[in-house]
Amino acid sequence: MKKILAVVLALALFVTVFAGCAGKANNSKPLVVGYSNFSSKFSPFFAETAYDQDVATMTTVSLLTIDRQGAVVELGKTGETRAYNGTDYKYYGPADLKITTNDDGTVYYDFELRDDIKFSDGEKLTVDDVIFSMYVLSDPTYDGSATFFALPIKGMEEYRAGMDTMFNLIAAAGRDNTDFTNWTQEDQTAFWTAIDAAGVKLVDEIVAYCKDNGYNAAEDSISACMANWGFEVPADATAADVFKVMVEQYEGDYATLFSKESAGSALSDLMDGYDKYTKGIKTGDSAANIAGIEKTGENTLRVTLTEVDATAIYQFGIPIAPLHYYGDKAKFDYDNNSFGFDKGDLSTVRAKTTQPMGAGPYKFVKFENGVVSFEANKDYFLGTPKTTNLQFKEMNDQDKLNGVITGSVDITDPSYSQDTAKAIKEANGNDSVVGDKITTDTVDNLGYGYLGISAKAVNVNGEIGSEASKNLRKAFATVFANFRDVTVDSYYGDAAEVINYPISNTSWAAPQKTDADYAIAFSKDVDGKDIYTSDMDADARTAAALKAALGFFQAAGYTVADGKVTAAPKGAKMEYEVWIPADGSGDHPSFMMLSDASDALKTIGINLIVKDLANSADLWTGIEADQVPMWCAAWGATPDPDMYQVYYSGVESG
Question: Residue 389, SS3?
Answer without folding.
Answer: strand
